[in-house]
Amino acid sequence: MTVPTPTDLAARTADRRASADLITRHLAPGVLVGREEFRPVHTRAVRESALTPHCRLVALALASYAHFRTGEMSHQPRLAGLVTATGLTPGQVAVALNILTQRGWASRTGSRAYEDADLQPHIPAGALARHRARRIAERAEREHLASA
């Protein structure tokens, strides 16, 4: 067994930083382009995601309060509104919101407590890229079937 040198440790640190940077970019809010509208893209991306059913439900309920095209929130549902909209308990909604914020599907500003916090739904850049790739593949398959 060899003893790591300072050069080895520096390389490991650089690799970790690169991985952390990639994860940060993947979880950052994606930017809609062209004629993309927030709510249909968000809905499909949530359905295609690996989120748990409770997280999906809360994400879709939160997005239902957002502007259809831009995703901006005009009305804040707060925790009580999401509990009413989903039928889940306050604890289940809070856990789902924590997961959604950690994975880039939502952000919270203002209070640390969900009862008073302003929430904003997002589509993480990685999920948006996967959604676009699927759309391209589906379009190519439709065109292939139509020409056959």
Can you give a write-up of this model?
- This protein has 148 residues and is mainly α.
- The protein has one domain: Orthogonal Bundle (Arc Repressor Mutant, subunit A), CATH 1.10.10.10.
- Helix content is 60%, strand content 5%.
- Strands 1-2 form a two-stranded antiparallel sheet.
- A hairpin with an 8-residue loop joins β1 and β2.
- α2 runs antiparallel to α3.
- The longest helix is centred in the last third of the chain and has 23 residues.
- The N and C termini lie far apart (61 Å).
- The mean pLDDT is 86.
Q: What's a quick, concise take on this entry?
A:
By secondary structure, the chain is mainly alpha-helical. Helices cover 60% and strands 5% of the residues. It has one domain: Winged helix-like DNA-binding domain superfamily/Winged helix DNA-binding domain (Arc Repressor Mutant, subunit A).
Which features characterize this protein?
148 residues; mainly alpha; Arc Repressor Mutant, subunit A; two-stranded antiparallel sheet; 6 helices
Fold topology:
Layout: H1 6-27, H2 38-48, H3 53-63, H4 78-86, H5 90-102, E1 106-109, E2 118-121, H6 125-147
Antiparallel strand pairs: 1-2
CATH topology: Arc Repressor Mutant, subunit A
Largest sheet: 2 strands, antiparallel
Quickly give the CATH architecture: Orthogonal Bundle
Q: Which percent bin holds the helix content?
A: 55-70%
Strand content: 5-15%
Task: Please indicate the count of domains.
Answer: 1
